[in-house]
Amino acid sequence: MQQIKVHMSRSESNNDKKASGRQGGTFRKKSYARGNSPVKKKAEVQPPSDPNVMRLNRYVANSGVCSRRDADIYISAGNITVNGKPITEMGYKVKLTDEVKFDGRLLNPEKKEYVLLNKPKDFVTTPKDEHGRRTVASLVSSASKSKLTVVGKMDKSTTGLLLFTNDGEMTKRLTKPKNGLRKIYHVELNKNLKGEDLLKIKEGISIEDSVVRVDDISFIENAPKREVGIELKSTRNKIVRRIFEELEYEVVKLDRVVYAGLTKKDLPRGHWRHLTEQEVINLGMIK
User: In angstroms, what is the C-alpha Rg of the chain?
Assistant: First the structure.
């Protein structure tokens, strides 16, 4: 039997729809020309996030205990409690008013910040000065929204490196370190330092019945003999000035150029910068 070939028209293949308008039919293809495009649905406006609520892992990380990734591990292990109850749920949210503890230790969710200032002359380190003198706090007021406090003290006429932070534990460690804190000063005297006096300082100077020992002292290269560099770890108040006053010298200029491994590199006088992550880690190793 001869095979019959059936040729279907386009209209027949389209579920027997009538031909297009050009062919006299009523079928029309959808047109997306200008003015005929489908109406896009407006994206739903998300309500603003509550600044007093945050994820638990962020809360823990901000407290300085660990990173967010490690916080997730501690949370899943049950090391974190919220208002006395262990929380192991990932993505759990807490309020700033909640009591969050890590292995029984109360956490503070405020992000820790560390700012290094190259202090100019004639600024005092007290937060407020009743005599109207300029304060170092005014120089770093734009560095953070948190309340930063200066670590240690520096007299008005001394210049150089000062550290600010809202990390109370770090402040305690740096203010009274068990093993001392490395500091280097550039000292300018009112007269040339005698060689024998330099040796006396190296061997140790007795001040108020206590011997003050320095780690190193030397003349500044290509500078007059009245300029010296001195390295020490003592935390005694105004100790550098007192060392030279004991030998009847007057300190004309005193500039702290190294503090706990931090330097003034690329930091002009009167300017500040945030510490790098590695610098913060290094400070955290000081006991």
Answer: 35
Can you tell me which residue has the tokens 């919220």?
A: 82
Mean pLDDT of 113-142: 91
pLDDT at 155: 92
**pTM to 2 decimals?**
0.70
User: To which residue do tokens 């491994």 refer?
Assistant: 261
Q: What is the three-class DSSP state of 227?
A: strand
**DSSP one-letter code for 236:** S
Centroid of chain to Cα 89: 29
pLDDT > 70: what percent of the chain? 83
Q: What is the DSSP letter of 215?
A: S
Cα 216 to Cα 77, 200, 203, 219: the distances in Å are 49, 12, 10, 11
What is the rounded CA–CA span in Å between residue 53 and residue 60?
Answer: 13
| Residue 131 amino acid letter | H
How many DSSP H helices and E strands does the chain contain? 7, 17
Active site residues: 155
Mean pLDDT score, 47-51: 68
150 residue type, one letter: V
pLDDT for position 109: 81
Q: 261 — alpha (psi -120 to 50), left (phi > 0) or beta? A: left
Q: Which residues pair with 124 in a beta bridge?
A: 135
Mean pLDDT of the chain, nearest integer: 85
Q: Which domains does the chain have, with CATH numbers?
A: 53-106 (3.10.290.10), 112-178+265-287 (3.30.70.580), 182-259 (3.30.2350.10)
Q: Which of 1-10, 56-65, 173-182, 236-245 shows the lowest mean pLDDT across its residues?
A: 1-10
What lies within 8 Å, CB to CB, of 241 at 6+ separation is 251, 254
State the residue for tokens 């020309």.
33
Nearest to 153, CA basis, from 182, 179, 123: 123
